[in-house]
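Query structure, 97 tokens:
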């Protein structure tokens, strides 16, 4: 099973909960999953098999709703190759030309 990259941004809507604390619930789910991930100011990027990452994303969404968000907006970005793995390092490490 080949690896992909999945970026997820969860924007919680809540009248009485702090947005950052709600987002932290999603990040905790991702961190506990064991996949390679990186938190950025706009999204969290994960690396792994597509089915596993989608299940983690769903669990992260549920964690934010369970923590008190009335609504969430969820944005995904994915990079998938037909014949080989996608890695976060290939996009962020220095490249030799």
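Result returned for the query:
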């Amino acid at each position: 099973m080949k690896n992909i990259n999945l970026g997820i941004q969860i924007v919680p809507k809540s009248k009485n909960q702090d947005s950052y604390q709600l987002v932290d619930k999603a990040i905790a789910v991702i961190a506990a999953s064991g996949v390679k991930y990186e938190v950025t100011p706009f999204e969290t990027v994960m690396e792994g098999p597509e089915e596993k990452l989608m299940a983690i994303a769903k669990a992260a969404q549920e964690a934010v709703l369970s923590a008190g968000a009335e609504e969430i907006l969820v944005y995904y970005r994915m990079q998938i190759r037909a014949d080989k793995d996608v890695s976060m390092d290939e996009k962020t490490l220095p490249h030799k030309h």
